[in-house]
Structure prediction request, 369 residues.
Amino acid sequence: MPARAVAAVNLSAIERNCARLRRELRAGARLAAVVKANGYGHGAVPAARAALAGGAEWLCVAAAHEASELRAAGLEAPLLVMGALSREELEVAAAASADVVAWREAFVERLPAGTRVHVKLDTGMGRLGTRDVEEARRVAERVAARDHLTLAGAMTHFATADERGDDFFGRQLERFAAFAELMRAEHPGIVLHAANSAATLREPAAHFDLVRCGVAIYGLDPFQEDPAAQDLEPALELRSWVADVKPCAAGESAGYGRRFVAEQETVLGVLPIGYGDGWRRALSNDADVLVRGARRPLVGTVSMDNVTVDLGPHATAAPGDEAVLIGAQGSERILAEEVARRLGTINYEVTTGLLPRVERVYHRDGRPE
Prediction:
């Protein structure tokens, strides 16, 4: 029998998505692949290698240990750690030859020799970065004045790029463009960057020197619709298998709390996947699974290790059959975006939430990697 649950990642799809995003870029702009959070659940190192093969030139992560993982795997591309860093984490980032982000003058004094710094202006996200342009300029000046540091870039982060028709995105872009003009004049040669996946696809004026694409390189739609509309190809399929098939009479139930009680005679299939694998309990009685090319409803409560599927009264499924929770089977497919809608969340959380018990396997258009 196969592994209880497998996330099958098509590295060729990641390569093609990166190549497609590069074609979107205005002249001179480069692509950075964001591989934080274990490559959004796809596997950071394999995803990074595929992204670089597809034309990405930079890699971005959120934490220092993520930078160390990439360097330990032999990846040598320019690497930016975008998150807040403690004194200890700064040393880890420095050992990985990773660029870091700064927005306070006091932070500059703690930077190890040799650190490359990107100054962050908060144009409206309201998280990391300074809202004060003058403070950002002072941070940049302080870095540039230190012989042991390098001012490498200036950046911001859009809050609403994935909300089409929203005018706040335009206000953020305008504010950063003015700051970028100042920084270019005062520090020629630095790298200016702002765009995430949504901004990259939405507005060429947001591309500057570098775009930071995460969700789109994995073939997930930043606008939470069908990735095909953006010419993106989902890279991950989540598969399990039918571990048991059993008759269920009218009035019989399945799962904790008897949240499913059969209204008529049917057949249930049991799959060895649950919230211990990242298949969320909130999908109880609210998801579909593909078995033998047909959509079958997940019924009952999602438990830690198992779910049940209503195979119908005339089921032909048998133990050992493949079950697809995200991906395609026959003419049917289930997108991460569909699962996200059922959960009231975004596709990012669906793939990133797959836990280590789900085995990752890699292939290139069906050929094992």
About this structure: The two ends are 21 Å apart (CA to CA).
